[in-house]
Amino acid sequence: MSAPTDRQAPPAPTPSAEEAGRRVEEVLDRLTRNGDPETGAAAEELVRVLMDFYGAGLARVMHHLERTPDGTGPHPALRAALLGDPLVTSLLALHDLHPEDTEARIGRALDSVRGRHPAEAAGFDPDTGTLRLRAAGSGGSGGCGCSGEDGAGRQSVEAAVSSFAPEVTTVEWEAEPAAAEPVLLQISRRPSAPATAS
Q: Domain 101-177 is classified in which CATH homologous superfamily?
């Protein structure tokens, strides 16, 4: 038997809510395609039961977090840590338990990637789920990774938005305005003065 070590295991990668949802849909589609409608219906019911169970547990967590026994409210650092965590936020939003509105969560998403891929919201349409974004601070050079040829930067931003605000179903990137052409300074010789009669 080996002695315990003081080293902690590296943290597991954060699961993506979008990826998990996609995998659940794939499994349900596979079960339905097999031709047994009873199996497909049972699988969908299982997903609903688990969602209800986890949702009830999360609602209880939020209840205790927001209403401490001494009436002081949640500890600010704990609240900030929970609401700033992409996985926790996506679960709370999925179950309609997140205390912040969509605009605030979009802001959190953009803040979470700002150091690497700065972008800013140009508008959100709740009726269509469409968020318009534009690259921020790139100066037209594409240096933020959100514009130009680098699609990985845009994907990182969109993944963050998907985690923090799953109600955003479409992201549209605004084209960067073309840099203004510099004004050329015309340098020419002064017109010669007319000759004066002596």
A: Fe-S cluster assembly (FSCA) (3.30.300.130)
For residue 160, give both structure tokens.
């963050």
Closest CA to 133 of 152, 116, 111, 157: 157
What's the angle, vertex CA 185, arms to CA 179 and CA 191, rounded to 5? 160
Average predicted confidence (pLDDT) for the chain: 77
Contacts of 129 (CB under 8 A, 6+ apart): 167, 168, 169, 170
pLDDT in tens, 80-93: 888 888 888 888 88
41: how many CB neighbours lie within 10 A of its CB? 12
Residue whose tokens read 């070590």: 5
